[in-house]
Amino acid sequence: MTARKIIIDTDPGQDDAVAILLALASPEEIEVLGITAVAGNVPLALTQKNARIICELANRTDIPVFAGCDAPLKRPLVTAEHVHGKTGLDGPTLPDPSMPLQDAHAVDFIIETLRNHPAGTVTLCPLGPLTNIATALEKAPDIAPRIAEIVLMGGAYFEVGNITPAAEFNIYVDPEAADIVFRSGAPITVMPLDVTHKALVTKPRNDAFRALGTQVGEAVALMTDFFERFDKEKYGSDGAPLHDPCVTAYLIRPDLFSGRHINVEIETTSELTLGMTVADWWGVTDRAANATFMGDLDADGFFALLTERLARL
Length: 313
Ligand code: RIB
Ligand code: CA
Fold this sequence. Notes:
single chain; alpha/beta; Inosine-uridine Nucleoside N-ribohydrolase, Chain A; eight-stranded mixed β-sheet; two-stranded antiparallel ribbon; 12 helices; globular; binds alpha-D-ribofuranose; binds calcium ion
C-alpha cells in the first residue's frame, strides 16, 4: 500500500500535537507533504512556532512548516488559552524551535501542492479553524476537484457545542470558512465531538504514554495531563478528549471508526447557533449528502494504535 500524501492544517494545541506525532510515526500509511499553521487555539505566531516544536520533538525537521491566516475570514479571532494554556502547548517544557518557518504563505503551499500533484492524490487534514482551506478554495477554485479527501476534526451533533451551547470550536471560530469547505464538493470525512469525546485519555492510557520511557511519551503524557482539566470540569469526563488524533488515526485504521454519509450544513447567520454543524443524521431532509460524519470509534483500538506508533518516535 502506498502512503497517502497529506497536508496537515493545524492550530497546535496539545491534541494537534499528538495528531501530528501519530502521522509522523506512520510513514507506511502517511506521507506528510507539509504542515500549515492557522490561528485558532492560540494566535498564528504561536501555532506556527508550536508546529515546528512538534516536528523537532519527532526529529523531523525535514517537514516544511508554513504560516497561514492569522484571523477568520469575516470575524475577529476567538482563541482557547483557557483550554490549551498561554503557549498553546502547556504541559511539557519543550525548547524553542531552530528549524526555519517556510517563506511561502500556507495558502499558496496548499494551492501549489494540489496543482503539482496528480488530481486525487493529496488529502487535506484540517485540525483547526478552516480559514486556510477556505481561502485556498476561494483563491483557486480549480483545486476543489483535485482534492482526494478532506478529513477534518470539527463540528458536533449529539454532543452539541463545546465553545457555545450549539457549536464546536473549530467551526465556531470561522463559520464562513467552514461553509465554503462543506459546499466545495470535495469528499469530506468529519471527526466531530460525537467521536472525539469517546477518545478519552484515562489514567491507564496516560500511564501507557509515560511508560514508553521516551521524550515523546513523556511529552504526550504531560500535554494530555494539562489539557484534560477543561473537559473534566465541564463534562466530568474521565480524561482529555483526543480530538485531532482521530483524523490521523482514521488515515491509518479507518475500521476503528463508524458513521453515516449525510448532509451537513453550517449556521453562519444566527448569533444564537453560529457555527453549528446542522447534521441531517436521521435523513429528515432531502438535502444532498456531502460528508461522512463519524459517530463512533473503537476507543481501545485507537489508543493501542496511538501508543504503539508513538513508541516508534
Ligand atoms: O473543539 C476541539 C478542537 O478545537 C480541536 O481541534 C482543538 O485542538 C481545538 O482546535
Ligand atoms: Ca486543533
